[in-house]
Amino acid sequence: SQQGEEDPQALSIQEGENATMNCSYKTSINNLQWYRQNSGRGLVHLILIRSNEREKHSGRLRVTLDTSKKSSSLLITASRAADTASYFCATERDFGNEKLTFGTGTRLTIIP
Amino acid sequence: DAMVIQNPRYQVTQFGKPVTLSCSQTLNHNVMYWYQQKSSQAPKLLFHYYDKDFNNEADTPDNFQSRRPNTSFCFLDIRSPGLGDAAMYLCATARLAGEEQYFGPGTRLTVT
Questions:
Q1: For site-directed labelling of A68, which of A10, B1, B7, B67 has its Cα 20 to 30 A away?
Q2: In this complex, which of A42, A88, A96 lies closest to B98 when CB atoms are compared?
Q3: What is the tens place of the pLDDT at every residue in A77-86?
Q4: Helices in chain B by DSSP H: which ranges?
Q5: C-alpha distances in Å from residue B30, one per residue of A24, A107, B24, B73
Q6: Is the pLDDT reported for residue B50 higher than 60?
Q7: Which residue of B has its CA nearest to A4?
Q8: Which residues in A lie closer than 8 A to residue B43 (C-beta atoms)?
């Protein structure tokens, strides 16, 4: 069964604004990862946050994790046209599980 | 540069005609994955290898088979493609279970 669901399904913002995407999941996890996918391409890993972490930063990206609410958010600050892509969260349920379960994705469009 | 390579990028096959998709990696990663992704959907895990150990997902059709002859290569065989098998097929690798996955560019399969 699908582990994660993302909200919103689609988001359009003006270049320079911040974009926030949310991910909810159903079972306990070992880690949660965010990936970006440009149209017709493979996925690119953005950031990994472990279950004992609450916040992580990487450049213009900020990820939070609330295990009590089983949710995570991805914030992209000062958005650029090149950020236009689909963003997926993925969860590893148990340590050493070897596989990720992907969420439904958020389609982000940055309007120049 | 170390990477995950998928060939071909585009594959057209006829209904019922066997087809093989290939994936190679120069990362020397232990884990290799095959995903199926249909338009506007999340990647769906078909199976994965941890070294030589094969792990099939319960809902992967018998029509789909895989081979990993060595660390670098992994193949996806579709024995009798149906129209519903048209999709993007993504190969990914990970150094260890649960770590970030590195994706290839994907093979878009069309079934006529």
A1: A10
A2: A96
A3: 999 999 999 9
A4: none
A5: 29, 31, 12, 11
A6: yes
A7: B42
A8: 43, 88, 102
